[in-house]
Amino acid sequence: MRQRTIVCPIIQNNGEYLLCQMAADRGVFPGQWALSGGGTEPGETIEAALLREIREELGEALEITSVKPWTFRDDTRVKTYADGSQEEIYMVYLMFDCESRNREVTFNEEFQAIAWVKPEDLGKYDLNVATRQTFKDKGLL
């Protein structure tokens, strides 16, 4: 089984959190709402990987003004690829509290929608199990 280190930004702007609805045909949690993030590349620092993933998934215009390490978690998940193949992966998640200056998001093919959500509305979304646990750990659910 392959192991991946995943960087995961918990992006906040004016008290609301950025959620991304995963594409219905791929990923670890197809169609569910989640936080953005992705794997580190060889030779990349953790913060560089985090900022690269934000740029790749959410666009160049989203300005991140603060990055603070928060916690980590690990588990094993099955990832579905665009071609329908699947792989079981042991994932180590490094979670970061991030603030953004703006809400200018242009998401890539990994997502089908985004939303800025007030803490009291988080429970109204079909959050994947990992994102739900993250917001529980933060005391928001």
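^ that was protein a. below is b, sequence first then the tokens
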Amino acid sequence: MEVSGYMLVIILGSALVTVIPRVLPLMLLSRVQLPEWAMRWLHYVPVSVMAAMIGQELWIKNGELELFNLKVLAAVPTLLVAIYTRSLLGTVITGILTLMILRYWLG
């Protein structure tokens, strides 16, 4: 398979744009001792991002807010399994099976 110069530039540019936002902060912040308040703040970033992604997937449909749907109903037992077992595999299986059953019966 032949790679044209244009395609090579696109691949290298994409790699650069992907690596810079990940590596640059790591290089800069690894040499700096962050204050305690910044470390506490950074501690909540992954949870906040995950909550935003899940919330949007659960409650937004076709650009509109939809509070009650099958995904929200499936999220309830999934959340309970996640809280009580702290098992990623159990949580994923619960979510998939619950949504599958709800779609079969209600949907």
